[in-house]
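Hi R.,

Here's the chain you asked about this morning:
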Amino acid sequence: MLIKLTHEHLPIISDYIEQFHDDVIYLMKPVELFATGDAKGVFYGAIENNQLLGLFYFSNKSVLAFHTLSPKVLGSLDFLKSIKAHKPKFIKANQAMIDGVYKLICRAVSEITESKSTLMYYEGGPTPIDSLEGFDLISGKHALVDELLGDLKFFIDVESHFGRQSKAINDIVKTFKAMIEEENYLLVVKDREMVAQGLIEDETEKMGILSGIYVSPKYRKLGLGERVSRELTSRLVSRDKRAVLFVKNNNSNARRLYEKIGYKSIKQYAVLTISY
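And the predicted structure, written out as C-alpha cells:
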C-alpha cells in the first residue's frame, strides 16, 4: 500500500536514495527539498517491515518521478489510483521502471508518447576552456540583462526547441530574468544578440544536471555548444560536485560532443508524456 511520506520517514528515504544512486537521479533534488521542508510536491512510499520498497514523487508541475524494484508495487492498484488522482503530464524514471509502468497506466490515460535518453556522468578532470573571439558569456547580474530581455525571440525559440508550450510574454521575462541573475545560467551574446544558452538545474549537495543547452541555428558548428557545456561542467567540478546530464538517444551529435568533453554513458532513462 502506498502511503504519504512525512519527515519521520526521512531516514529510510535517505537510505533508499543512497542505495539506488544512479537510478534515482530525478528524485535527488526533491528529496533534498523535502528534508528542508521546501518540497514542491508530495512523496508517497511503499513500506513493508519499515523498509521502503518504492519512492514516488508527484511535483506541483505535473511531473511524476519514481523508482521501485518491486513488480508488486509497480503493478499495484494503489499506484494506478495515485496516477489517476494526481494526473501527471510527465512520468520520469530509468528505462526499466518506465517499461514496467507502461502497461499499467495505459488503463488510465488516452495517449502516451515516450522519449528515451541516456544518463551521462562527467568522469574527466578539470575542463579546458577555450575563449571564443567575438562572443561574450553572461552569467549572474549584468548590465545587459534588461536590454537583452527586450528581444524575446531567442527565448521563444528556446521554448519551442525543447517542445515546451509558449508562455505569456510577462512569464517569459520573469522566468529568464530570474535565471540570468543566477550563476547557474549561462548566456552567449554576440554584438548584443543572444545566440546560445545552458544551465545547471536540480543542483544538490553532491551533483548538478546540465540542461537546456541551445545554440541558435545560424551560429551552430562554431563550438558554442561545447563551450557552454565545458563552462557549466567546470563550475560543478570547482564546487566538488558531480556533473550529470541526459542526452536523447536519437541525438548522436550531442552524445559525441559530451563524450569528447569527458562524459560517460551510465544508464538508460525515459520520459512519458501523458494525455488524459
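The two ends are 24 Å apart (CA to CA).

Let me know if you need anything else.
M.
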